[in-house]
Each structure stands twice: as C-alpha cells, then as structure tokens.
Amino acid sequence: MCKIILNKFPKKDRSCLIPILQDIQTEYGYLSQDVLSDVSEYVGMPFASVYGVATFYNQFRLSPLGKYVIRVCRGTACHVKNSANILIALEAELGISAGCTTRDKVFTLETVACIGACSIAPVININEEYFGRLTVNEIPKIIKKYKNMAKKEEDNKTVSVV
Ligand code: FES
User: Fold this and answer.
1) CA of residue 73 to ligand 1 center, whole Å
2) 124 Cα–ligand 1 center, Å
C-alpha cells in the first residue's frame, strides 16, 4: 500500500519511523493498522512500538477524517470569547466529542490552538470556510448546511450510478 513512500527511506531503521508515518499520513490522511504493520516490518520494530509512537503523538491519526473537518479554535483570544461553549454546542449538535468522527463519516471535530484569525474570535473553520464572531445559536444552521451538502453529494452519486 505505501511501498512508494517506504522506498523513499532506504535506511530502513527506527530513525526513519516518524518521517515515514508523517509521509504516509499526508498521503492517506490516517494510519491504518495494516500500514502500521507494514511500517513495523520495514523499520524492524515490533508492531506495539510503532503503534505506541503513532498513538503518543497528537499529529498522528489512526482513523480516517470525516468529509468535513470542523476545527474549533481554543486559543486565548477565542477562549476569552467563549469558545468552550462553541465546542460544547458542536459536540451536542454532532453527538461526538472533540477528536472524533461521526459514524456516517461526514464530520470530524477537532480543537486547535490558534487558527490565525484572532480578530474574529471566537472562530471555527470547516475545511476551507471560516466562521468568525460565532455564537452558539448559529451552530445548528451551520451544521445543517453541511449535512445538506453531504446529502446532495450522496444523492448525485446515486443518480450517476443508476
Ligand atoms: S486564538 Fe482563535 S484564532 Fe487565534
């Protein structure tokens, strides 16, 4: 699966582990168990050790992202403007906790330290779209919009298959 990436690291030892995992995640979006197993074999480390590294660092993800990734800024500027309640409202609306993906794989909810838009705090982004000076009351409407977009795309796929 990730042979092309592995071949970029001819040294085949533990010193390459993190760069290999980073490259694979960049390519595939996450690190599956199969991939971790391949990497373990490649660098000559036990699977448990590779898994331990992948779970130790926040940068690595062991499950695929949802279609829409919601990033809730929890930096200082957003924190003082009530971003904690924004996060709580999103968790309630989506039925998941931060760091998780909805069962239908439509939404992933994450927190970030600062997304560089402090002047419009509190702020979230959903993929490339930013929502600034956000209030809790706006959350249901925003989520509904993205749910509709996901549904429309699914419907279009179904029509083109038929
Ligand atoms: S602290 Fe939220 S955008 Fe900077």
Assistant:
1) 6
2) 9
Q: How far apart are CA 66 and CA 63, in angstroms?
A: 9
Round to whole Å and give the CA distance between 41 and 33. 12
Which atom of ligand 1 lies nearest, measured to the CA of 113?
Answer: 1
4-56 pLDDT, tens digit each: 888 889 888 889 999 999 999 998 889 999 999 999 999 999 999 999 999 99
What is the whole-number distance in angstroms between the Cα of residue 115 and the centre of ligand 1? 5
User: Do 50 and 115 fall within a single domain?
Assistant: no
| pLDDT tens-digit series, residues 86-130 | 999 999 999 999 989 999 999 999 999 999 999 999 999 999 999
- Using the atom order of ligand 1, give the atom closest to the CA of residue 120: 3
Number of H helices, E strands in the chain: 7, 4
Same domain for 122 and 89: yes
Residue 13: give its domain's CATH number. Answer: 1.10.10.1590
Residue range(s) defining the domain that contains residue 124 = 68-161
